[in-house]
Amino acid sequence: MRDTAPLPTLLLIPTGIGCDVGGYAGDALPAARLLAAASGCLITHPNVMNGAALYWSDSRIQYVEGSSLDRFAAGELLLRPVRRQRLGLLLDAGIEPELRQRHLQVADGCRATLGLDIGPVVTTDVPLDVGLSLGASGISWGQLGQPQALLQAGLQLKAAGATAIAVVARFPDDPDSVALAAYRQGSGVDALAGAEAVISHLLSRELGLPCAHAPALSPLALDPDLDPRAAGEELGYTFLPCVLVGLSRAPDLLPAGSDNAVLSAGSSTITIDAVGAVIAPAGALGGAAVLACAERGIPVIAVDNPCLLEVNAEVLGLEVLKAGSYAEAAGLVLALREGLAPAALRRPLPSLREIA
């Protein structure tokens, strides 16, 4: 491909709604890599990039927590790409000593092997008391019993010089759950996702820093019928490596209109006005970021990616570009990047009509 300027593109796959692609830990990574190559600049959230012990670092991909992505799409935040972040590690006091040590060893391994800047480490004063729930539709959500303890620990890390925060909270174990068995065999919903979103949204909004979460869980027994999409979650004792790698180059979050944002504005700062497309599952177009982009006239690419929601273009009255897969979506992004009208690539091609 000739040297064409990047076309910043948003990739959104909502958490905990059972998407065929992106409903598991990191199974949307191949799609993200392809879209990053097509666009030259892909902005997406941890749900897409986190594959437990597996991850992929790509300078063309900006790793942005979900609520911060919503605020970026609304024009409230600017993104400033960075070479590295100093990662604060926030541990839940409810994690047992041995499991806690496993997570600290993962962090040390990432320091020694990947050269990540990690530290300080803070443990909450009391257990965070995470609860998990499934709504009537089957969508996952969750509760946090001690949000103030989470915020207090986050403030300690920020005061100590952390520029991004990785959180590890103890999640309830339920190894005999029917829902967990279905998920591991490829037909369920990620029951952890809703509660994880609550934790990262709260911290990022209050602290103004990139944040992401890794659940602490006891290892599960071997399942010979494991779905390949769930396999990445069974490789080790923790989900932390992908979070540390993702946050290590997560962009700074700059409030729009602030002196800091004005001083930093330039070719390296990404604003919503530069975004050329937003990509989301065809049945999950009702999110704040998609609607904010649509209001700005940014092309919406609706991908056939079945999920539990049916909030589609027809229901919302949106004009969208339809794609049967993320590979087709990558072709549409490349067309937009090259200045081609997507309609010119489809057949039949209708004749022009003169306005009366």
Structural summary, described in words:
By secondary structure, the protein is α/β, with parallel strands linked by helices. The protein folds into two domains: 9-81 and 253-342, Rossmann fold (3-Layer(aba) Sandwich); 87-250, Rossmann fold. Helices cover 32% and strands 18% of the residues. It is built from twelve helices and 14 strands. The strands form four sheets. The chain has a six-stranded parallel β-sheet with strand order 3-2-1-12-13-14. A four-stranded parallel β-sheet has the order 6-5-9-10, with helices on both faces. Helix 1 (29-39) runs parallel beside helix 12 (326-337), helix 3 packs parallel to helix 10 (288-295) and helix 5 crosses helix 7. The mean pLDDT is 92.
